[in-house]
Amino acid sequence: MNAPALRLTVLAALLALCVIGATGLGSSFIGPDRVIAALLGDGARMDTVIVWTLRLPRVALAAAAGMALGLAGAILQRALRNPMAAPSILGITDGAALGVVTFLWLFSDEANVLTVSIQWQPLAAIIGALAFAALVGLLTLADTRRRDPVRVILYGIALSALAKAAVTLMMIIGPVYRASQALQWITGSVSAAHWIDVGVVTLGLAAAVPVLIFMRLPMRQIVLDAQTAATTGFSVDRNRIALMVLSVLLTALAISQVGAIGFVGLIAPHAARLFHGQFAAGYLVATAMIGGMLVLVADTLARTIASPLELPAGAVTALIGAPLFLMLILRSQRSNV
User: Fold this and answer.
1) Closest-CA residue to 328 (of 253, 273, 241, 266)
2) CA nearest to 320, candidates 226, 215, 188
3) Closest Cα to residue 99, out of 255, 327, 218?
4) Which end of the chain has fewer CB atoms within 10 angstroms, the N or the C?
5) Do 32 and 21 contact (CB within 8 A), yes or no?
6) What angle, 0 to 180 degrees and rounded to 10, lies between the N-to-C axes of helices 121-142 and 149-173?
7) Nearest to 302 by CA among 282, 321, 291, 316
């Protein structure tokens, strides 16, 4: 077994251990042997009900959403040739949050009752994410220095601040149906997981696989500077837009189901570079598995460290991601001195 395959095997084993551990933890602890037996259909009836009905949908959704967010971050960083690029930095995540709060604000009456089905909420998140991604794209296209990837990040940060301000104002002015639940969604939570949600995210990941296989060569070439790429006949702008669209779709898909969990798209690609290597075979697979583990571990900590209270998983990822982002900014500044 070669080195990249060995590293991927190690990550797969770690992810499996995280799944088993997270499934066993809860108000009633289930040991790893009992979890495995229940997963294989050989466990006690009560263990099987707890594992398959109550815990595994949440565990699977956290892992799948983390994979989508990790992939989205890796694609975005490669497309913009900037290690600080991430969906949460570019305003995509906050755009989704604004979409959800706008939905709740528009369809809440004076009695604070939602007048339409809450099942439309994920669609509102997707619309918000796509709208803010389109705004970032339009501002970049209108900029005479649009070939500079840093400009995209600056526009994203500005729009992200705008979305946060709008969300705060709408939450204060109201009425917003289930304001506390909306606030928890904005921070990021996997508490309302169902198997249908797992299926939606898993299908999205499956659909992204052939696209990524098809674009594996452009993803390698896009790291070239514009002049070098032009000599090879490679269209940097066209492929950058295609990769950014794929990143936005993966982000919108994930956060529409688990809320605005931030910084996973920033942390997972960096961890994969350190452990696996950016240009080693299976880099995106490594990033996806690390992203899945990040959200899964964060959600497990969020529901256990303050039990019976449940913290938003996004708060845990932000505690890790925000200092890392500051470190990357400082490192970037030093390298430019």
Assistant:
1) 266
2) 188
3) 255
4) C
5) yes
6) 140
7) 316
DSSP 277-305: -TTSTTHHHHHHHHHHHHHHHHHHHHHHT
Rounded to the nearest 10 degrees, the angle between the axes of helix 236-258 and helix 56-80 is 160
Sign of CA dihedral 198, 182, 307, 44: negative
Averaged pLDDT, 123-141: 87
How many CA atoms lie within 13 Å of 90's alpha carbon, on the beta-carbon side?
37
Domain spans of the chain? 3-335
With tokens 């794929």, the residue in question is 246
Q: Do residues 121 and 100 lie in contact, with contact meaning Cβ atoms separated by under 8 Å?
A: yes
pTM: 0.89
Residue with tokens 């490669």, as numbered in its chain = 78
- pLDDT above 90 for 176: no
Per the structure block, which two tokens stand in for 278?
């950016």
> CATH number of the domain at 3-335, please?
1.10.3470.10
DSSP 66-109: HHHHHHHHHHHHHHHT-TT--TTTTTHHHHHHHHHHHHHHHTB-
φ and ψ at residue 319, rounded to 5 degrees: -60, -30
Comparing CA positions, the residue from 53, 26, 296 lying closest to residue 194 is 53
* Reported confidence tier of residue 61, pLDDT bands at 50, 70, 90: very high
